[in-house]
Amino acid sequence: MDFLLILFTVAVCIVVLVLLTSLICFYMAFYASRRAPKNPPEFNVPSGKAYAPFREMMIHWMKSMRATPYKDITITSFDGLKLHGRYYEYAPGATLELMFHGYRGTAERDLCGGIQRCFALGRSALIVDQRAAGESEGHVISFGINERRDCMSWINYVVENFPKDQKIILCGISMGAATVMMASEMDLPDNVVGILADCGYTSARDIIKKVIRQLHLPANMLYPFVKLGAKLYGRFDLEEASPIEAMKHCHVPAFFVHGETDDFVPCEMSRLNYEACVAKKKLITIPGADHGLAYPVAQDEYLHALAEFWTEAGVPTETITRKK
Q1: Nearest C-alpha neighbor of 80 from the set 170, 168, 140
Q2: Are 176 and 99 in contact (CB under 8 A)?
Q3: Are 219 and 13 in contact (CB under 8 A)?
Q4: Where are any strands of DSSP class E within 153-298?
Q5: What is the pLDDT of residues 184-197, one digit of tens each?
Q6: From start to end of 104-158, where are the E strands?
Q7: 96-133: per-residue pLDDT in tens?
Q8: CA distance 39 to 245
Q9: Considering only CA atoms, which of 120, 68, 79, 257 is closest in space to residue 176?
């Protein structure tokens, strides 16, 4: 009897330890607090040495973004969240880039250069605050799993509220790139004519394990707790989909770009996504560019490569008129 009691106690302790570890992993990886910081900066430029040289450029882009007329748009997600976006029109009927930001980012912070880039190529832009970010509701970031469904909701909004022949390019950076890549294997309408994936990862599992290893922790031991935390507390399956698997079913032209010195999402991940892609595709890598900095580092190369690719893919593209 004493042995059974001890065995039961040990079993309970193990279960509690597993649940507690999974909860900690969930809060660290997936939970987003909605509390505003006490003294928020006027311009939320990413921190870190890699971004310092581009701080003034990003602030300039944010100021320009705020000064450009736009329309606020709100939709409801498949699970009842209010999602917010801003529509910037270049010209009536222009191809629309539907743009998604990265992990724990916001539309303004991560896509501030996107408006300028879109306008330089004759595009309109709809930039989206992903769930649990910016002005959108929610507390759980799912590394593109639920976000890809949100992407479909945004696509449906455009199809229903813009001209019937409205062309759409799905564009994302970092986790946003993973979002649009995973959305590309879903039931896309003919309006979607391509995707742009900037510094996207191959799978949530791969990038999470990479970060765990960077923290000098055992990735193979901790990852199951991360996955369990997502399932128990976030109510999503972290391995339900992945960008690299989605690329094996992609049927729209795909443009991949990545900084060669990316310290967060290795450049090799875009190479692997590119190799897996079965649609018309192009990959450019930018020497000296860290995470999310391919465009700031090499604006002209980025723009010309995009213009050439979309022209070859039959997507209308205007002459580049980027202002220095």
Answers
A1: 140
A2: yes
A3: no
A4: 168-173, 192-198, 254-259, 281-286
A5: 999 999 999 999 99
A6: 124-129
A7: 999 999 999 999 999 999 999 999 999 999 999 999 99
A8: 42
A9: 257
